[in-house]
UniProtKB/TrEMBL annotation:
<dbReference type="GO" id="GO:0022857">
    <property type="term" value="F:transmembrane transporter activity"/>
</dbReference>
<dbReference type="Pfam" id="PF04290">
    <property type="entry name" value="DctQ"/>
</dbReference>
<dbReference type="InterPro" id="IPR007387">
    <property type="entry name" value="TRAP_DctQ"/>
</dbReference>
<dbReference type="InterPro" id="IPR055348">
    <property type="entry name" value="DctQ"/>
</dbReference>
<keyword id="KW-0997">Cell inner membrane</keyword>
<feature type="transmembrane region" description="Helical">
    <location>
        <begin position="93"/>
        <end position="114"/>
    </location>
</feature>
<keyword id="KW-0812">Transmembrane</keyword>
<protein>
    <recommendedName>
        <fullName>TRAP transporter small permease protein</fullName>
    </recommendedName>
</protein>
<comment type="function">
    <text>Part of the tripartite ATP-independent periplasmic (TRAP) transport system.</text>
</comment>
<comment type="similarity">
    <text>Belongs to the TRAP transporter small permease family.</text>
</comment>
<comment type="subunit">
    <text>The complex comprises the extracytoplasmic solute receptor protein and the two transmembrane proteins.</text>
</comment>
<dbReference type="GO" id="GO:0015740">
    <property type="term" value="P:C4-dicarboxylate transport"/>
</dbReference>
<keyword id="KW-1003">Cell membrane</keyword>
<feature type="transmembrane region" description="Helical">
    <location>
        <begin position="134"/>
        <end position="155"/>
    </location>
</feature>
<feature type="transmembrane region" description="Helical">
    <location>
        <begin position="54"/>
        <end position="72"/>
    </location>
</feature>
<feature type="transmembrane region" description="Helical">
    <location>
        <begin position="17"/>
        <end position="39"/>
    </location>
</feature>
<dbReference type="GO" id="GO:0005886">
    <property type="term" value="C:plasma membrane"/>
</dbReference>
Length: 172
């Protein structure tokens, strides 16, 4: 079972690396299109109107996909001082509860994000002429990844905490 968790963690790590790469490329694209905006506005005296819409879309994707990568690395925003001030026997179940709650939140994000994608697919974004659902697709994908990353961490920690990785009931 421990080998399975190790393989799934490696696969998740590759997905996280891909997320970081995609977000980095989106940041570079953001810089390039804003450079084009400035050049067009002040040198050519023609403002490219599509830049603002594309920039908003890129920021949405960078935020959501970056958040999913943060969940994998366990660097997402969280309030830990309450959990960390508790005795060790209480801290472990609270950490598991936190992972489970985050996983449930990711599942809800994926489900309702998919509904938003479906709802907005027939309407186009102004200036870009792509479906509005593309914007909300980031929330659905990010939610699915958060569900997977936090769920895997929950299962892995449960196995580690309660079975010490050997299949025997361990001390909490």
């Amino acid at each position: 079972m421990t080998e399975l968790f190790a393989r799934l963690d490696r696969l998740s790590g590759w997905v996280r690396t891909l997320l970081i790469l995609v977000c980095s490329l989106m940041m570079v694209t953001l810089i390039v299109i804003f450079g084009w905006l400035v050049f067009g506005r002040y040198v050519l005296n023609v403002t490219p109107t599509w830049v603002e819409q594309l920039a908003l879309l890129l920021v949405v994707y960078i935020s959501f996909l970056g958040a999913a990568a943060g969940v994998y690395e366990d660097t997402h925003l969280g309030v830990t001082f309450i959990r960390e001030s508790m005795p060790r026997k209480i801290r472990r179940p609270l950490r598991l509860l936190s992972d489970l709650g985050l996983s449930a939140f990711g599942l809800a994000m994926a489900f309702y994000g998919a509904k938003l994608v479906q709802f907005g697919w027939d309407t186009n974004l102004a200036m870009l002429n792509i479906p509005e659902g593309v914007r909300t697709l980031a929330a659905a994908v990010s939610g699915g990844l958060i569900f997977l990353f936090a769920g895997l961490r929950f299962l892995s920690r449960t196995h580690e905490y309660y079975f010490n990785g050997s299949g025997r009931q361990g001390a909490l």
